[in-house]
Amino acid sequence: MKEKTFRMKIVVLASEAVPFSKTGGLADVAGALPRALEALGHEAILMIPFHRRFLKPSIVLESVGLNLRVPIGPKIVEGQVFSTTLEGSKGVVYLIDQPDYFDRDGLYQSAGVDYHDNFERFLFFCRASLETIRLLELAPDVLHCNDWQTGLTPVYLAEQYRVRAGLERVGTLLTIHNLAYQGTFSRWAMGLTGLDARLFNWEQLEFHGKLNCLKAGIVFADRVSTVSPTYAKEIQTAEFGCGLEGLLSARRDQLTGIVNGIDTTVWNPETDPMIALNYDIATFERGKAACKAQLQRRSSLPERPDVPLLAQIGRLDPQKGWDLLAEVADGLLDLDIQLVILGEGAPRYHELLDRLADKHPGKLRAFLEFSNPLAHQIEAGADLFLMPSLYEPCGLNQLYSLAYGTIPIVRATGGLADTVVDAAPATLSNKTATGFSFVEPNPRALRGAIDRALAAFADRSTRREIIANGMSRDWSWNRGASEYAQLYQEILSLRSSKAAG
Ligand code: ADP
């Protein structure tokens, strides 16, 4: 029987969230989902570490007046809590403040090297969050944890907090945004947790002799989700499972894939204040032409309306298919095209891009930095967007591209397979084609997809049709938030039957 919908109280825990801090897609999701849940009539509270140096001056915080005292091994670490609300929403955001841990230049690392005390930092965040929930008597229905940084929360809930008044029935969801980042630390880290040493076994917290925070969350959460149905299937295989495929396939009946939405208050060509000219599905040709000219100027590339402008935005990490791109780049840049890249990451890709830019003057511009306004301007000004990822849990840039009328060229994996429909005779005639995809992760297949995309781009009516198909789809959080709400309901039913049980 279908449960009656009622107002749920959800606490979303994440290590980063827009507009407070961001290194990747997790921040977009954590910043947007609470608002979308609120629009469905639920109460959504966001809890994040207070990464002090990333706070925009326009955001006003209030002290909640709590003095947290969190045991970390033999010491007690004190913390504070600040609160604010998300713009245009009543949803409260709690920022857990501990300057020694979170007042740093990076969220997780500095100059490409992880902070040596990341385990301790996020152990603190997990325990401080539960303390905040307890002291403020928030009594949520569901605690929605995200990625390894919050993986120990369901463990503490089960081991120490469920006995507390108001917390007996809290359900837990762990969402995996990228299985490759598991938060594995030396077995000695167990000593900092205060958890019973018996939990350090291969069926619970241990993974090949180490403490694995993501595994802990997968084992202890009531339900597990990831950010697309295809990735949910892929991670049950050795190729994508990063060693956890056995555990994930054992939990496959409790594993769900929900494709991320986009925050249309931030990513919307009709209202985006960062682009040269706003546009919609009726005016995209004029709007994109103005944005393209602006992007070419900003990139010091010849201002030519006719030349296909390809782009890529993202971490310079092997995951994003840079090795494939490296193999096709020279041949591609010999064509009459322009390429704009925005990203930072592995030094070897920085060097590759510098070398390519020298070799192909006037054709390639690589911005080796993190710049949100530039990301918006590229999405609006480019014609084609490259995303040849080796794996992609969901991917947001292809969604932004679809919304901004920039045709994506993607590898058919994970969320890319779930969101981009390859342009072929059948999908063109039934008006579902939204981009170009290839399957095998090799340079020939990538180049084949790029060539098909360039051919389609040269044909104005095909180009218009593919763009309009992508722009007319609803990429907002409406769908994703309803799917999460459904999942929370299932978790609540599970918890009620356990409590009755
Ligand atoms: P991932 O989370 O794996 O890094 P996603 O595609 O899911 O990849 O999300 C990446 C997010 O980070 C997008 O919002 C993208 O625009 C943004 N982003 C990545 N690199 C940069 C950069 N160098 N400058 C600005 N935004 C970036």
Task: Give a structural overview.
The chain is an alpha/beta fold and about 500 residues long. The chain folds into 2 domains: about 10-260 and about 480-500, Glycogen Phosphorylase B (Rossmann fold); about 285-475, Glycogen Phosphorylase B (Rossmann fold). It is built from 18 helices and 21 strands. Helix 3 packs across helix 4 (about 155-160) and helix 10 (about 320-335) crosses helix 16. The longest helix has 24 residues, at about 475-500. Adenosine-5'-diphosphate (ADP) binds next to helix 1 and helix 12. Adenosine-5'-diphosphate binds near residues 371 and 372.
Gyration radius from CA atoms, angstroms: 23 Å
Structural class comes to alpha/beta
| pLDDT averaged over residues | 96
Count of discrete structural domains: 2
Unreliable stretches (pLDDT < 50, length at least 5) are none
Q: Strand fraction band?
A: 15-25%
Number of helices: 18
Q: Cofactors and ligands present?
A: adenosine-5'-diphosphate
Largest beta sheet, briefly?
10 strands, mixed
| Euclidean distance between termini CA atoms | 19 Å
What is the CATH class of the largest domain?
Alpha Beta
Could you tell me the number of beta strands? 21
Helix fraction, binned, reads 25-40%
For this structure, the CATH topology of the largest domain is: Rossmann fold
Architecture of the largest domain, CATH level 2? Answer: 3-Layer(aba) Sandwich
| Outline type | globular
CATH superfamily of the largest domain: Glycogen Phosphorylase B
